[in-house]
């Protein structure tokens, strides 16, 4: 039982100045930079000319464009969720039921798309599957399709391509959740069901499905909302008839066009309802498992089974990573036009990143924004974890909930709320004048859960006896925290901070919405700007910028993995 739970049971709280003051500061931070933007958007969506009105929602309901955008976003979200389920479920079953050579490496390959930004992958997928992309050109050379009739792999203006890309990117979320649940199923339950005459389908439906349902719905809710609110892929494919792009386009005239605020409120309500219904429904049912039997659930795969597993799962990994590999190839392509592969290669595009003023400035901006937000996350994460695990603070449960809400809150919603709520006559607080502070804070709020969960894990795993001994000899709480506790949890804090930094480097929604002037563009906004230019070399420079971001992301995650080991996966669940 944690400290806050004991406090609730005993009715005693720590009311010392440090605990109370720190709690108030944290609540003030969340109030200003999380609650206030959300409430501001709700207020704006329900008023016209200072009066309560349903007009913004009526305009959405009457607009054929908005109706089509909603339908397209729902179709994409449902298709991605179903596709991720179809892919992740058999993968989880194979990975938890069989042991085979190279399993750890294959598992890492399967999870890699989760940390590779779909925004960058969209560039590569477009190069591969366009009407005269590499795949169609290869099929033409083989004589399998006519040159005059290329296959429209992207479909419906890019909608099929968006769906495929998001399945590639989001299925690892479900895989992580299903892996954890299936690995904890006691094999004795399955053996008992088979011994009573139940077939494989009956065992799956009656035993396995109920036990994995909580983890599945938790992951499926995240996948659905992430697919519904993804902004980067539709922008790269030029598919504007989806809700995220409609919100993005409404930023420029949000004062005159209330549709953006109405969409934001609807998305916020949808996200809240999905998570509430999921937790409410699952909370009303019991899904308990006794400890696993001593016999291992995994069985050694035969050489033939190992070959088939590698062919299936390894082949899928190749498909998922192909868009990002294509981006890497395009970044060194000197000329790649109507050919399957580049005609020649060059490293000049990477040199352009440093020589070109705007691209080099965008790299500096992203590094600055990400570093500052990571430092803020480290300070906030340590403070929150300390209050949750070491003090009996009033409102600890609410504080924990506020810290974790950004996981369920779409980045597009928070970014739009910042753009509208902080439209003040204060240059350093107005995104139209200088978005630096708001970008740092939005990055910080979005990635704070990683540091909080990592810090809490570290505090819970370190013994409190050393801290009690320090307090018994008169050391104040701050000195005990600095000299005793933090050195013990240093690895967890560094890993969580690295995660916050690396994901902020390639954050899409915040940068696209809040960075309105090119001098403040982060890398993602600069990639989008370069892809919109007619010059073909701009696309290769954008790919080089994307590769640089992926290298920074990969290095950060590798270091975090070395520090946390197997515990790294817990942060993503």
What percentage of amino acids are in beta strands? under 5%
Question: Structural class of the secondary structure composition?
Answer: mainly alpha
Average of per-residue pLDDT values: 83
In one word, what is the shape?
Answer: globular
- End-to-end span in angstroms? 21 Å
Q: Please tally the β strands and state the result.
A: 6
CATH architecture verdict of the domain at 1-42 and 349-573:
Orthogonal Bundle
What's the total helix number?
26
Numbering strands along the chain, what is their spatial order in the largest sheet? 1-2
Low-confidence stretches: 1-9, 291-296
Major sheet characteristics: 2 strands, antiparallel
The radius of gyration computed from the alpha-carbon positions, rounded to a whole number of angstroms, is 25 Å
CATH class of the domain at 1-42 and 349-573: Mainly Alpha
CATH superfamily of the domain at 1-42 and 349-573: MetI-like
At the fold tier of CATH, the topology name of the domain at 1-42 and 349-573 is MetI-like fold
In percent, how helical is the residue content? over 70%
At a glance:
With 573 residues, the chain is mostly helical.
Report on this model:
With 573 residues, this protein is mainly α. It has a domain at 1-42 and 349-573: MetI-like fold (Orthogonal Bundle). 73% of the residues lie in helices and 2% in strands. It has 26 helices and 6 strands. The protein has helices at 3-10, 17-45, 55-62, 64-97, 103-111, 118-129, 134-142, 159-183, 187-195, 200-229, 232-237, 243-250, 259-283, 303-331, 348-355, 357-390, 396-408, 411-421, 436-461, 465-472, 477-488, 490-505, 509-514, 523-531, 536-564, 568-571; strands spanning 47-48, 51-52, 98-99, 299-300, 333-335, 344-345. The strands form 3 sheets. The protein has a two-stranded antiparallel sheet. It has a two-stranded parallel sheet with strand order 3-4. The longest helix is centred in the first third of the chain and has 34 residues, at 64-97. Residues 1-9 and 291-296 have low confidence and may be disordered.
